[in-house]
Design goal:
Length: about 500
């Protein structure tokens, strides 16, 4: 089976915003407690942060981290998570029916971000609270001093402002599962007013409005138009969320699902532009894909694990990812890259234990899940300028869609003059011979071909066998052919083809 890819450095989609490779940390399950924060763990530092987890998150090079939710934020009082830990209240979290001890809050998160080397992306509660509490949090975090809230931050041990630049105006506010769910008009008005007063406190901040909770919601489309009609002048980004599942065990359809991610991005961008047109504005609302991943393995786990209501940090949403999940995550990363002109922020949901690339055992080790590797490769090698390719690929039909290309790919012209091609071969039966037409790149030579594959698509990494699925180097680099190179992509594989700039003419 053969496919071809023609690339030219003059045909560019956009620069990649590094924030495309962000993460998401929510007070959910064991993400915070036993995930990133576990005082008493053998690797814990003076702050109670697990250093083994810090090392793995640093490895992923995540420039931005969303917090504290997610559904959790819609019932959260940020004041409960600051100040002396022994004076913080224990409260019921209605979103996940757990008990929140509040021993980890905003300041701990900021400290953790600094240790990781990531920028905080804070969400404000627009479910049970409103503009006043949102502006208060901005003042607490960002104002230099001389006011009650900024001086309170100083009393809590932070003399300098946190300088949080990226803020989310609530979370999934059209979802009936959301505490304080709202109609589009209700949310559009409160988002606009919250954004207005938050910016009055700090004009330098960037703001993300909630899009509809998913493309499948009955509200999708109408929600975006109504919300932006109210908030257009006050916000910079609109959020998108999506998760893909193979609950029906239909692998060909599962591998095809990332194609829908690109369509979702196109539709949402069109809605944003329609509002701009109606307002006769040249402003462009960009997109924040701040929740995305594979999620289905843990469905029903609450009952299977006999988790009681109001437990503290129970093991919720702990998907154990497989090789085929890694292929889908790779396809989703490719979609994000290919729409880098509109998607400026991306947050894989989540980072540790909860539908996450990193897993931990209480008091024990941390390890990389299968999906860790495509994200790692994209984050390390997907920085630069995305190129617009000419692609010819054989296709297949499945229940999900007709004429799904076996090849899905994205190509990035790196800042050092090199080129990286990310590619998934969706064929479950055959390798794919990929012809790379690089006639416009006379000074490139093959440097590396990384492959992630496994004979068993259901193979996963576990505490006892943490390296069952891991990348390998191809035996041979891409071969020179007329006008470029040819590489063989194994069946059902994620591939990273790297070309380095040389003196060759």
């Amino acid at each position: 089976m053969k496919a071809s890819l023609i690339l030219d450095p003059d045909f560019q989609v956009s620069d990649v915003d590094p924030r495309l490779f962000g993460g998401f940390a929510e007070h959910l399950g064991r993400h915070i407690y036993e995930g990133i924060y576990e005082p008493g763990h053998p690797t814990a530092d003076a702050n109670g942060f697990r250093r083994d987890v810090l090392d793995l998150v640093r490895e992923l090079r995540m420039p931005v981290m969303r917090y504290p939710g997610g559904n959790f934020v819609s019932g959260y009082n940020w004041e409960d998570g600051v100040g002396p830990v022994d004076q913080r209240p224990r409260k019921l979290d209605l979103a996940w029916k757990t008990t929140e001890p509040n021993t980890f809050g905003t300041n701990e998160f900021i400290n953790w971000c600094r240790k990781v080397g990531t920028a905080p992306m804070l969400a404000v509660n627009l479910g049970t609270r409103g503009p006043a509490e949102a502006r208060d949090l901005v003042e607490y975090c960002n104002h230099p001093g001389g006011t009650a809230l900024s001086d309170l931050r100083k009393q809590h041990g932070f003399a300098k402002p946190h300088a949080v630049k990226l803020w989310c105006l609530g979370n999934e506010m059209d979802g009936p599962w959301q505490t304080g769910a709202k109609t589009a008009t209700e949310y559009g008005r409160i988002a606009a007013e919250a954004a207005k007063v938050m910016r009055w406190v700090d004009p330098s901040i960037e703001l993300v409005a909630c899009g509809s909770s998913s493309r499948g919601m009955a509200t999708f489309g109408k929600w975006e138009l109504e919300v932006l009609d109210h908030a257009f002048d006050h916000v910079d980004y609109l959020s998108l969320h999506t998760y893909y599942s193979n609950a029906d065990n239909d692998t060909p359809s599962f591998l095809a699902r990332p194609e829908a991610m690109g369509e979702f991005i196109e539709e949402t961008a069109a809605l944003c532009d329609a509002v701009a047109a109606s307002k006769k504005s040249r402003k462009r609302i960009h997109l924040s894909f701040d929740e995305w991943n594979v999620w289905f393995h843990s469905h029903g786990d609450r009952e299977k694990r006999r988790i009681k209501d109001w437990d503290e940090a129970p093991p919720l949403l702990e998907d154990i990812y497989t090789m085929e999940d890694a292929l889908v995550v790779g396809g989703m990363l490719i979609a994000l890259l290919n729409y880098a002109d509109r998607v400026k922020i991306g947050c894989i949901a989540q980072v540790v234990n909860v539908i996450a690339p990193i897993m931990t055992a209480k008091g024990g080790p941390a390890w990389r899940q299968t999906i860790f590797y495509p994200f790692l490769h994209a984050s390390h090698h997907g920085r630069g300028k995305v190129l617009r390719p000419v692609v010819v690929s054989p296709t297949y039909d499945c229940k999900e869609r007709e004429q799904t290309p076996f090849l899905t790919s994205s190509s990035v012209l790196n800042d050092d003059g090199g080129l990286t091609v990310f590619a998934v071969n969706r064929s479950l039966d055959e390798p794919l011979d990929l012809n790379l037409d690089l006639r416009s790149f006379p000074t490139l030579a093959p440097a590396e071909h990384l492959i992630l594959d496994h004979a068993d698509l259901k193979a996963s990494n576990t505490e006892k066998k943490p390296e069952t699925v891991k990348p390998r180097l191809a035996r041979n680099l891409p071969k020179p052919v007329e006008r470029g190179f040819r590489a063989r992509l194994p069946k059902a594989s994620w591939n990273v083809l790297r070309f380095a700039r040389t003196a060759r003419k």
